[in-house]
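Ornithine cyclodeaminase
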Amino acid sequence: MTPPSRQALVPFVSVDHMMQLVHHVGIEPLLVELADAIEADFRRWPDFDKTPRVASHSDIGVIELMPTSDGQHYGFKYVNGHPGNMRQGLQTVTAFGVLADVATGYPLLLSEMTILTALRTAATSAMAARWLAPHDSRVMAMIGNGAQAEFQALAFKAICGIAEVRLYDIDPAATAKCVANLAGRGLRVVPCASAEEAILGAQIVTTCTADKQYATILSDNMVGAGVHLNAVGGDCPGKTELHRDILLRAGIFVEYPPQTRVEGEIQQLDPDHAVTELWQVIAGHVPGRTRADQVTLFDSVGFAIEDFSALRHIHKRLQGTGLFLDLDMIADPDDPRDLFGMLCRAAPRQDAA
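Structure:
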């Protein structure tokens, strides 16, 4: 049988490949690279197609498609969010993604994105804080110590200079896991018995909890002047983490308002409540933090451009590593009009009787 042509082969990055690539580059250097790649694409935000993700909601979770294109490349991510999965020993979030060439429509890369989403989410959080948090921030509270927590802590260390992370989770086992995983990584790690204890002395507060419900992880009296809030866990309709009164006194920065108003913390507010698009801050069109005592909020829900940036960076980073598997994904007949003939020629040969 004729082997597939080069045109037929698409690089596939498995979970094992992605883990090897992270160790090849180094987790903190890769987080910095991803933050820089995402920031560069935020600077050219108008170049991209933008649409809220296509979501299929159920009582127990959500499955979403997140597409975008800059006219040269097209990317999409398939991702789910099922908080109850953890009780079955399954991941809350799983994902895979595709990067394609707009000129031909041919895919250029198929990749796992469960690990890559954790990396890009943390990189985006720290990239936003680079523009919004107090410049002398050295302490971060991490409320919710699940699968995203270590990525967030290391991204803020590498990108924003955080030296201490204060941990709290309603499940002490999650905090213990996080403490163990962050040991020896250059951070002072402080496990705390409550959210109130965790935010003491913190200039940055990250909330990243999983339950699909309206929740009050932070009440208004817990958030002092000058704090930057990185709200990661509120990311679908009916799921929030911050008391509404916090939002009413914060400068709110978002990725894409039509999506964030449905999924983010600001779903609690009037549809015309003023927010600032983060790309406009990065592009220099509007200011970010304007006062030392200002409460800033990055209402992070995750947007397709961030995944596009991550896929494009991984595609570039793969060169020369061999950390992928070529998949025979594209039919490539000698005559593009003769797909049927290609199929027929692949039939098993029958020996004459």
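The chain has a mean pLDDT of 94.
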